[in-house]
Amino acid sequence: MKRKDFLKKSALGITGAALLANTSACKNEAAVPLVNMHSNTVFNWRMTTVWGKNFPVFGESCNLFAEWVGKMSGGRLNIKVFGAGELAPGLQTFYTTSVGTTEMGAGGAYYWQGIAPAAPFFTAVPFGMNAQQILAWLIGGDREGYELWKEVYAPFDLIPLLAGNTGVQMGGWFNKEINKATDLQGLKMRIPGLAGKVIEKAGGAAITVPGGEIYTNLERGVIDATEWVGPYHDYKLGLNKAAKYYYTPGWHETGSQLEFIVNKKAHDSLPADLQEILFTASLRVQAWVLAEFDAQNGAYLEKILDSGTEVRRFPKEVLDVLREKTDEVLAELTESDPMAKKVYNSYNAFRKKINKWSELTEKAFYNDIQK
Ligand code: CA
What we know:
The chain is an alpha/beta fold. It contains 14 helices and eleven strands.
C-alpha cells in the first residue's frame, strides 16, 4: 500500500478515535470511579504478529503476554494471538492494528521503516546501543526514548509497548572469509534493512531471502553469507550445516528491541487498571525475552561449536569501514525526515552519555573480570 493511502486511512482512524475519546471523557465525568464502572466488562482482543505461530522466543513471548494479561486481569482482558498469515500477512501487522482490525500487534519497529522512517531507532540501527543501554534510553530517566516512540506512532493511532530484546546478535554465517574490507566487495549477503544498505555501500549485494529459504540459498551458493539471530535460532535453521564460518559481532543488530502495538481507540476503551496491566505484562515480557535468548544461546552455542563450526571475529579494519558506511546511511536517513533526525539526536546524545558509564563498568567487567 502506498504511504499516502495509508496516511489517509490512518487519519480517518484518528478522527474516529478522537470522537470516541471525547464521548468517553463525558461519561467519565460521572461520580462513579473509572475502574469500578468497568470492573465487570470483559474485553476480547486479537493480536496479529509478524512472527510465525509459536516461533521460538518471538512467537512464544506473545503467547506468554496473553497468558499473563489474562491472569492479572482475572479474565477481564483476553487476548487471542495469531501468527503471521493467520489473520493477516506478517508485514501488515502495523496497518491492521492501526486501522483497528486487530486491537494489538507484535513485531519490530524497523519493519515499518517505509511508513515511519524514524522507526528503526526503536529496534536496531547498525553500531547502535545494546539491550541494557536501549532500555535505559526507553524507560529510564525522562523516558525520552519511549516518549519519542509514542510520538512517532501517534499519527498512526498506535501506542507502542516493550516486548523484549534479542541482545547482541551474531554477525552471521559466511562461506567466504572476511579478512579485509575489500572482501566485502561482491559479497552476496542476506541482510535486511539499513544494514543491507551499509553492505551495499561497502561494495556487497544485500539480497532479500525469506526465512524459509535461507538454508537452501546458502547451501547452494546463491548467497555467500546470511545473518539470522544467534546460536539458538541459527542452529534450529541448520545454518551450521550450510556455512563454514560464524562471524561475530552482530554490528548490524547490537540489541534488537521488539514491540507490541496497541490500537489507540482500543487502548482508550480500557479502564485504567487494565491499561496498567498491559504495560506491566509488557515489562515482564521485556525481561523474559532477553533472559530466554541468553539462556538458550549459551546452550546452543555449545552445540554449534561441537558441530565443527569455526567462530571468527570481524577484523577491526572491516568494522571501521562498516561503521563509516553506517554513518553515511544514517545521515541520508535523517536528512530526509525531520522526525528521524529528532529521534537520532536523542539516541545519539543518550549514547554518548551512557557510553562513558558503560566503559567504566560493563566494558571493564568483560575485559577485566569475566574469565
Ligand atoms: Ca537478525
